Amino acid sequence: MPALKKAALAVTSAALLSAFVVTPASAADGDDDAPKPPATMSQIGGAQLGRSGTQVNLGPGAPVLPKKLTGRSWMVSDAETGEVLAAHNAHWRLPPASTLKMLFADTLLADPALLPKTREYTVKDEDLAGMGEGSSLVGIKEDLSYTVHDLWLGVFLRSGNDAVHVLSSMYGGVPKTVQAMQDRAEELQAIDTHVVSPDGYDAPEQVSSAYDLSLFARDGLQNADFREYCSTAEAQFPGEKKTGKKRETFGIQNTNRLLTGADGVDAYKGIAGVKNGYTTHAGNTFTGVAEQGGKVLLVTVMHPDDDETHAVYKEAARLLDWGFAATGKVTPVGELVAPKSAVTGNGTDTEGAGKGAEADKAQGEHGPDKAARAAAATDGSGGVGIALGIVGGVLVLLAGGVFLVNRRWPLPDLMRRRPRP
Description:
Layout: H1 3-19, E1 54-55, E2 57-58, E3 73-78, E4 83-88, H2 101-108, E5 120-122, E6 145-147, H3 148-158, H4 161-171, H5 174-187, H6 210-220, H7 224-230, E7 234-238, E8 249-253, H8 257-260, E9 271-279, E10 283-292, E11 295-302, H9 311-326, E12 330-331, E13 334-335, H10 351-363, H11 370-377, E14 388-391, E15 394-397, E16 413-416
Antiparallel strand pairs: 1-4, 2-12, 3-4, 3-11, 4-13, 5-6, 7-8, 9-10, 10-11, 14-15, 15-16
Helix pairs in contact: 2-5, 2-6, 3-4, 10-11
């Protein structure tokens, strides 16, 4: 064989090999005592996302995935196109902890007229009942009044279960809120999610997945109030009120360390939220969105090993670094699907995807025909455009594609947040 042909064959073989490399599963999979993902999982978003282990399709010049990834489940995706760049047990149903508050916020903020930001509410004893032992709190007190704006700051910055329960009371009670959240999850095709408590506190059968949490973040970021709250680093919160004196306030800081740069974690360049969480059963969980070089990525990490301090943030940062470097050099392993009710820009109804979700839900486990149905159900043209740029402390919504033919996402706007320390 001529030398030129041999060289060309070698290059072609190397390119084909790199395009289908699947990196070894995370370190957690090597632990015999660690829980194992189910053999079959949902294939919403693509057949490859239903497989256990790490899924990535590396193209020529693509960087390999970071070595130190211990999360039981993780995913990195393009927030604008919805393309999933890489994933690990994306549909594994795990306890979500406070990252479930993204679904809570996405549900209640969908109708701003229902709970306007300026509305004041005096807290009653029963509003604070039923919170789990050891719940994270912002410091709400009964018989004191708070605005809805105050309460949302408590939810996003301090992950306050007390703020969640007060807002749930204002919404009509915890049971109504839980049902609304479940309905919202189903509308978003987040079929891995089962809601039991609105705050994400450990509860029997309360689960979500890296895939679903990414859906919640992506949908929530279409809402200006959601964007404002999740990107706020610090704020003042109402405190005690003494007769004849101005009401006191106290400072609160966002517990998202990639946003604030607190506790020895470096603030991530271009970070703009979204939500972190921790419970005994869930371990640490995190979903974040960041923009660099005109690209906007979402990352979700669930339950990394605790051998490394602040592992959830460090692994999320590693995945974001990889994602920005790999953009355009990998073949997506799946996509973030559009809501069931959405119609794509070319007029094609995505109801087929919804039917696929319903069939998945009805069967529980997933048969061999799911891959074909999932591929047919989504055509990749329903991406959300949410280019988030941070320049001089200003978070900018730059541009947008659309899910719906007759309703567009918010026009470009500006949101200011307090500068990080």
